[in-house]
Write a structure and sequence with these properties.
- The complex is a heterodimer of chains A (521) and B (88).
- Chain A is built from 13 helices and 27 strands.
- Chain A has four domains: 135 residues, Rossmann fold (3-Layer(aba) Sandwich), CATH 3.40.50; 112 residues, Rossmann fold, CATH 3.40.50; 77 residues, Roll (Luciferase, domain 3), CATH 2.30.38; 101 residues, GMP Synthetase, Chain A, domain 3 (2-Layer Sandwich).
- Chain A is an alpha/beta fold and 521 residues long.
- Chain A is globular.
- Chain B has one domain: Non-ribosomal Peptide Synthetase Peptidyl Carrier Protein, Chain A (Orthogonal Bundle).
- In chain B, 56% of the residues lie in helices and 0% in strands.
- Chain B is globular, with a radius of gyration of 12 Å.
- The mean pLDDT of chain B is 83.
- Classes of the chains: A alpha/beta (521), B mainly alpha (88).
- At the A-B interface, helix 8, helix 9 and helix 12 of A face helix 3 of B.
Chain lengths: 521, 88
């Protein structure tokens, strides 16, 4: 099935009208209700004097957001998700970067969004019962600005950037259709299936949740935010048949011993994406969900949701257990991957940076100034996206994730550029230089900011650093710990050795640390 | 099993949290994920430390995770678990 513009509404109309399309807690929305809401939003926008730009979805996952996304598709407009939990500065940066035609919110999020959506953009509010649409701020044709988001774009996701502000990734409709073509065939959902809606709308994996489930006529079951950490009860109570999450969710359940054999009998398909998937967790998950096949997906936002996959076999063999983690497998049919290595510099030809090209790969960032180095032209003039991920092609022909070639970190699947955090700290405390790393061992876990100030011992309090970060960065980018160092460990080139900073923070409680800002009095 | 008062339980939980995060200015009802900047795996490690501290076992399959995400929820849940095991 290849889906084209406007066709999502046709597909919705073709499903059994009384089947549940979206389930949020006790609220169930049938396909008929979802279609009615989608059409109402589409009509409201079509006959209003709004600009030509994208539609911002300022809503939590649920029927309202699904209808807004479907309406955007039907109108041939991109959608841009916003999270109410992000700080006002970040939301305003995103609004300014996309120049939306309007913002759609629900009255669930209206109070949380009220302060930050103070700009002049038209604001359409969906009532709690989903029956009523009203303009909280009416369109004013005089102030419509031109948007840099082209009419060929399906959605724009913002990810951490190295320049100190979020980086807009515009994904073309063509790319989304290419992904959905593969995903609905290989990982599809059918009427009667109950698929998880784990991802926040600002995470591009949510695009899979919404589209693959609604195209297939299944029920999209929204997991409440507070259940994401340990989702065992949710999976069982809601009788989820199709699960899709970051590996962290399985990792947590495994760690607390909750992945007991056979506890997820309803599960038939499990997809993991966004982080390396470890074999021990995979095997425990398989035992807990004996009727489920497990697929490991891989793909940066720039390559549209996921671009490679590996179906976990019943038994792990020695060849696919090279790094203790599950292979990322093979690139989707029709898309292309190559390993960039320099044999002349003594590098192995089967190991290096993964480059991607094909219809799923973006042609550039929203701001052309972002990521100039992210694209390269290869043989025959083909444009390649450089993922920054180091991979190895093993003897079995499968791709294995090895690590990053730069400093990018992952926190619960979210990409984090340390430079963006370091920039926020530097702007608040110009006399300090910081290096942000992720610690996985020792007393300090998670993001740790190591700081050196002009006057030793004069560093800002941890709470001040965290507050400064919190005013412009999403919560997953706020350092859990702040440690003041005396000097930076450097490598042979005289550059700060980030790996050594991390080791120092992990291994030594107080090596060259002059002041560790602990409990505030 | 030794019986702890809710006051003792709350104090021990606060101590275990303060060993793991920089700041402990945390409301009893606030979410540990939002209030402390522990990530989900950090909260999981904290829960395991709490199990060990009180020599109890939380049924992570049956429990509503929301009740484990605040100091007050945790205190209530642990105190209930201890009552149950003392009766049994």
């Amino acid at each position: 099935m290849l889906v084209t513009w406007g066709a999502l509404t046709d597909v919705l109309a073709g499903h059994r009208p009384d089947d549940t399309a979206v389930e949020t807690g006790e609220q169930q929305t049938s396909y008929k209700q979802l279609l009615d809401l989608t059409c109402a939003i589409r009509e409201q926008i079509a006959r209003s004097p709004v600009g030509s730009g994208p539609i911002v979805v300022a809503d939590d996952p649920g029927a309202g957001a699904c209808a807004t996304i479907a309406a955007a598709q039907a109108l041939g407009r991109a959608y841009v998700p916003l999270s109410a939990s992000h700080p006002a500065t970040r939301i305003q940066q995103i609004l300014a970067a996309v120049e939306p035609a309007l913002i759609v919110q629900s009255d669930r999020t209206a109070t949380r969004m009220a302060d930050v959506l103070s700009g002049g953009y038209p604001l359409l509010t969906i009532s709690r019962e989903l029956g009523n649409l009203s303009w909280s701020r009416s369109p004013n044709p005089v102030v419509n600005c031109a948007s840099p988001v082209g009419s060929d774009i399906a959605y724009v996701m913002f990810t951490s950037g190295t320049t100190g502000r979020p980086k807009g990734v515009p994904v073309r409709t063509e790319s989304l259709m290419a992904y959905l073509d593969v995903a609905t065939k290989r990982f599809g959902v059918r009427p009667g299936d109950r698929a998880s809606h784990f991802f926040e709308l600002t995470f591009d994996l949510s695009v899979h949740d919404v589209f693959v489930t609604l195209l297939g006529g299944g029920t999209l079951v929204v997991i409440p935010a507070e259940q994401r950490m340990l989702p065992a009860r949710f999976l069982r109570e809601k009788q989820i048949s199709h699960w899709f999450s970051v590996p962290s969710a399985a990792e947590s359940l495994h760690r607390v011993g909750a992945l007991r054999p056979g506890i997820f009998p309803h599960l038939r398909q499990t997809l993991f994406c966004g982080e390396p998937l470890r074999w021990p967790v995979t095997e425990a998950w398989q035992a807990a969900a004996p009727n489920s096949r497990i697929v490991n997906l891989y793909g940066p936002t720039e390559a549209t949701i996921a671009i490679s996959y590996y179906v976990v076999p019943g038994r792990r063999s020695r060849s696919n257990d090279v790094y203790g983690i599950v292979p990322i497998g093979q690139v989707f049919e029709g898309q292309h991957g190559r390993i960039f290595s320099r044999p002349e510099a003594g590098e192995q030809p089967n190991r290096g940076e993964l480059w991607l090209s094909g219809s799923q790969v973006i042609s550039g960032y929203l701001d052309a100034g972002d990521g100039q180095d992210a694209f390269a032209s290869g043989p025959e003039g083909v444009a390649w996206y450089r993922t920054g991920d180091a991979v190895e092609r093993a003897g079995d022909g499968l791709l294995h994730f090895v690590g990053r070639i730069d400093h990018q970190l992952k926190i619960s699947g979210y990409r984090v550029e340390p430079a963006e955090i370091e920039d926020a700290i530097h702007r608040a405390f110009p006399a300090c230089r910081s290096v942000v790393v992720r610690c996985d061992r020792g007393k300090r876990r998670g993001l740790v900011a190591a700081i050196i100030c002009e006057e030793t011992g004069d560093g800002p309090a941890a709470s001040a650093v965290r507050e400064a970060c919190g005013s412009s960065l999403p919560s997953y980018m706020i350092p859990a710990h702040v440690v003041e160092l005396v000097s930076w460990p450097v490598n042979a080139n005289g550059k700060i050795d980030r790996a050594a900073v991390r080791r120092q923070l992990e291994e030594h409680p107080n090596p060259d640390v002059v002041a560790e800002h602990g409990v505030e009095s | 099993m030794k019986k702890h008062s809710e006051y003792e339980i709350r104090g021990a939980i606060r101590r275990l949290i303060s060993e793991r995060v920089d700041e402990v200015s945390l409301d009893d009802s606030a979410s540990l994920l939002e209030g402390t900047n522990l990530d989900s795996l950090g909260v999981v490690e904290l829960l395991l430390a709490i199990e060990e501290e009180f020599s109890i076992s939380i049924d992570f399959v049956a429990v509503d995770p929301e009740s484990l995400l605040s100091i007050s929820g945790l205190t209530h849940h642990l105190s209930m678990l201890m009552d149950e095991s003392n009766v049994g």
